Amino acid sequence: TLIFTVEDGLATITLNQPDKLNAISTKMKAEMLTAVREAGAPGSGVRALMITGAGRGFCAGADLSEGGVGGTTGDPGANLVDSYHPVFLELAHLDMPVITAVNGVAAGAGMSLALTADIVIAARSAFFLQAFVNIGLVPDAGSTYLLPRLVGEARAKAMMMLGERIPAEQAADWGLIYQVVDDAALTETATTMAQRLAKGPTRALSHIRHLVAASAGNGYESQLQAEALAQRAAGRTDDSREGVQAFLEKRPAAFTGT
Ligand code: LHQ
């Protein structure tokens, strides 16, 4: 239900249930967990992860054709805790940059998945949908955490309560995502950006994503402290030495991720 490839330090997960707009089936959740773990495993050589979808959708959220949203136990809460949260937490804990290339609809938990990325790029025809309320449910898989932080409570609550499609351009205007590109340019633009990140100073990029994630729960002083700790670690990397040396020698830096 997904395609996982690794090339030159870039791992790509392509959700692959196009006839269901890549709705998240039980099998897909298990495969996602395996793929994300493989990407993040020490010694994997992976330095960036890109997630995209096959066909005309990115991800339509929970697979509603599997007999409701309760998963194997019939309890949606347990379904989330048992099989969604491990995937989303594994993604959040990855020590590398994550990009989502949103090629079409990102709905429900599929929208939550899109927003787990550090950088979200969408095709012009894509749209974002807090689909949950349309089936009498509440936003999950991190949407109530991420969405208000990205667009503010007014827009977040309107999206969550009205369950309306938000076109990619509007999402970019709101600051929900980073960039919109023409449909035909999505794969190349996102892949080029992800390849660039895969050749970046991986330790620094990892600290950046974790610092920004931590900032939501930290006060100013604690965050200054967190920055100092991360800078101490980043400043001791080969990539930091290389970056400074390359600057002084007026040449591009050759980062190795160490
Ligand atoms: C689908 C789905 C789908 C199966 C389209 N499942 N087949 C909640 C509770 C607890 C634990 C787990 O997690 C969650 C999280 C959630 O994500 S809840 C929200 C679940 N998602 C939705 O409610 C979205 C349902 N889908 C839609 O509203 C529409 O399909 C969207 C807006 C995504 C796309 O609309 P269209 O572009 O008009 O396409 P379509 O509706 O014609 O869909 C195309 C096909 O994909 C169709 O199958 P068919 O055999 O008729 O061609 C759909 O049945 C299928 N599909 N979403 N989630």
Automatic annotation (TrEMBL):
GO terms for molecular function: catalytic activity. It holds the Pfam family ECH_1. It comes from the Bacteria. SUPFAM superfamilies: ClpP/crotonase. Gene3D superfamilies: 2-enoyl-CoA Hydratase, Chain A, domain 1 (3.90.226.10), Lyase 2-enoyl-coa Hydratase, Chain A, domain 2 (1.10.12.10). Belongs to the enoyl-CoA hydratase/isomerase family. PANTHER family: EG:BACN32G11.4 PROTEIN, ENOYL-COA HYDRATASE. This is Short chain enoyl-CoA hydratase /enoyl-CoA hydratase.
